[in-house]
Design a protein that fits this description.
Order of helices and strands: EHEHHHHEEHEEEHEEHHEEEHEEHEHEEH
Radius of gyration: 23 Å
Shape: globular
Distance between the termini: 27 Å
Number of strands: 17
Number of helices: 13
CATH architecture of the largest domain: 3-Layer(aba) Sandwich
Helix content: 25-40%
Number of domains: 2
Length: about 450
């Protein structure tokens, strides 16, 4: 068995879903389990509806809901045969009726709780998974819709729920393993339910995580992540057009890249697959013949020092300075307790005797954070910064990599440096306006000549 996850861009239109269906049909012999994201930008649309509802703007919320319903009807209708048409109509009617009732209640209350937000956001994957299952049937493929809420068991931390791994594995193995041979299971990613059966979500990008959890549960031969790029690249092609595909990369390298800005993979995805030693393959649904990138347990020998340059933009540096730090115990603990209280994650950290600099990519809670830090430290913030991270297994074995990094960046002002926290990467922070220039310089330095066994 294999697991095939299709992202929103692979399901954004009738034509896109058609391509995905043909990809699944071509792999029927491998008995695929199909995990789908919401169609196109449906999740963003649902979150926009929640914003209108919280303002009490019923007219705005309902207009957005009608547009979303029209989009699903328009793009799904050509996908199903006459025999499946009534079931499609029933599915769309029931789900949008339930969604409309929920939005009406939220508009009256003018309050969107994390629990109600999860219920609202879950409709994207609930709709897409039912549509894809019916479309497969219309193409003569035996398929069954599996409600992910009956498989993915989580805690009750709404909007960022953590799966109960043993229970999820047991349910997935029982539900999916109990299907008739040759039947394709289709389920929504991103969503689950707590032990009380209340709908939860795994956080944005969680469909990758769902695919990995299901793959680990059924001991899949391979987990395939179908997206709109040719796998992991040596850099973001929007920044460096010369970026080339990476044929093979290790789980650890992929996790570093995902954390520091590579968009093709959710950082948590690799964990269940890594634990069960299941290869993960990143593929392009627009070019299904392209080989993509395979992620495996051990890094393969490579003549190049690096596998990729990741770039994460839109960050802020928070500079903290206080003479109380000098010879003081617990100062850093006080700082991190404040960030933890406001659920703001820190990406990179640098310290000296009397100062701390750290980067964050979410500044929504900065006013509250600064107010709590002000009594015991001076706070200044620099916005529009970027992290550039060079990643490769050879970094741990090769002296002089940092010298080459800083040689390449000789004309760029580096604001922060991180080396040693991981054996696989060196990270620097630069002004966001210099991110493209810095990425191009690093790519030129390390990828002028490529090992053909590792790079496309």
């Amino acid at each position: 068995m294999i697991v095939m996850k299709f992202g929103g861009t692979s399901l954004e239109s009738t034509e896109a879903i058609d391509r995905a269906l043909e990809i699944v049909k071509a792999r029927r012999e491998q008995q695929p389990v199909v995990v789908v994201s919401a169609m196109g930008k449906t999740t963003n649309g649902l979150l926009a509806i929640a914003e209108e509802a919280e303002k009490g703007n019923r007219t705005g919320a309902m207009e957005k809901l009608r547009a979303l319903e029209e989009y699903h009807r328009r793009e799904s209708a050509p996908l199903v045969s006459a025999q499946e048409r009534s079931q499609l109509e029933s599915t769309l009617k029931d789900d949008f009726q339930s969604l409309g009732d929920l939005v009406e209640r939220l508009c009256v209350l003018r309050l969107v709780t994390p629990q109600s937000l999860d219920t609202l956001a879950s409709f994207g994957e609930r709709l897409s998974s039912q549509i894809v299952a019916l479309a497969l049937k219309s193409r003569g493929v035996a398929s069954v819709h599996v409600d992910a809420r009956n498989v993915i068991v989580t805690d009750s931390n709404f909007t960022e729920a953590a799966p109960d791994i043993p229970e999820t594995y047991e349910r997935a193995s029982r539900v999916i393993g109990g299907l008739d041979k040759g039947t394709v299971a289709v389920m929504g990613g991103f969503i689950g339910a707590d032990r009380a059966g209340v709908t939860t979500t795994l956080g944005r990008g969680g469909s990758d995580f769902t695919a990995s959890l299901v793959g680990a549960a059924i001991s899949a031969q391979e987990i395939q992540i179908w997206t709109d790029v040719d796998g992991v690249l040596t850099c973001d092609p929007r920044i460096v057009p010369e970026a080339r595909p990476v044929k093979t990369i290790s789980f650890d390298e992929a996790a570093e890249l995902a954390y520091f800005g590579a968009k093709v993979l959710h950082p948590a995805t690799v964990m269940p697959a890594k634990e069960k030693n299941i290869p993960v393959r990143i593929l392009n649904s627009r070019r299904p013949a392209a080989p993509g990138t395979i992620i495996v347990a051990e890094a393969v020998p490579c003549m190049n020092l690096l596998k990729s340059v990741a770039c994460k933009q839109g960050l802020a540096i928070v500079n903290l300075r206080s003479n109380r730090m000098l010879m003081a115990h617990g100062f850093l603990q006080r700082i991190f307790e404040v960030f933890a209280r406001y659920e703001t994650s820190v990406d990179m950290l640098a310290t000296s005797e009397v100062s701390v600099s750290l980067t964050v990519d979410d500044d929504t809670r900065f006013p509250e954070i600064c107010a709590e830090l002000a009594p015991f430290t001076e706070v200044s913030i620099e916005r529009d910064q970027a992290i550039l991270c060079v990643v490769g297994d050879n970094i741990r074995h090769t002296p002089g990599v940092a010298a080459r990094v800083f040689g390449a960046l000789r004309d760029v002002n580096v604001r922060m440096i991180s080396q040693g926290a991981s054996l696989l990467n060196i990270g620097v922070v630069v002004d966001g306006r210099d991110a493209g220039k810095a990425a191009e310089a690093l790519h030129r330095e390390f990828f002028s000549n490529l090992d053909p066994a590792v790079f496309g």
